[in-house]
Amino acid sequence: MEYLAIFNIAFFASLSHCIGMCGGIVLMLNAKAMQSHKNIVFSNFLYNLGRLSTYCLIGAVCGGMGVAFEISRKFQGISTLGIGILITIMALLMLFVPKVLNTLEPSLHKNSFLKRLFGILYKDLSYKNLYFIGLLNGFLPCGIVYYFALIALSSGGVLQGIGVMFVFGICTWIPMFFSGMLSGFLMYRLWIYRLSLVLMIGFGLYTIYKGLNGL
């Protein structure tokens, strides 16, 4: 039930938000890969595999931290309640105060360090570097990633945390891989994004309910 909810939230969020945030990176990557006579499908596969690797690592760390701080059932209930409140507040801010993302997600173009690092990898676009670009991309500040990291934190273990971020990564893989074919959806991005945020609020309230039951 929870993984189904995570899948739905991640899929709608990625259709709207991820294409907008990382679409430019994908377009640059594809253009450079074509110039280098690289296989486009394999290039995109490696890039997305890199992102998925990072998300699974984040899930493992967050899931492990969640277990480490579960001292007692009562404390577990309190921590789950707190995470549910944070999830709900984050989704409400993103829904009603969308400019909050400007502080959560610094632009790549405004960050000279990240821009330089990506530039080094783009200069020699080997298949190895395509994977590393995806790996680095997964660490870019992103409100949606923060949201799912919080869910991983309350998931109950390392494997569960990896599972949460793996589902999220796969859901972002689909629209990023086929972003060209999905361009027709872009006119509905705002409504799809709002739908994903409403689903996030619902999941946040459900997490609060779980936390209250654990007290």
Notable characteristics:
79% helix, 215 residues, mainly alpha
What does this structure look like?
With 215 residues, this protein is an all-alpha fold. The protein has one domain (2-213). Helices cover 79% and strands 0% of the residues. It has helices at 2-35, 40-68, 73-96, 101-104, 112-123, 127-137, 143-153, 158-177, 189-213. Helix 2 packs parallel to helix 6 (127-137), helix 2 crosses helix 7 (143-153) and helix 2 (40-68) packs antiparallel against helix 8 (158-177). The longest helix has 34 residues, at 2-35. The protein starts with a helix and ends with a helix. 38% of the residues are buried. The model has no long low-confidence stretch (mean pLDDT 76).
Condensed summary:
The protein has 215 residues and is mainly α. It is 79% helix and 0% strand. The longest helix is centred in the N-terminal third of the chain and has 34 residues, at 2-35.
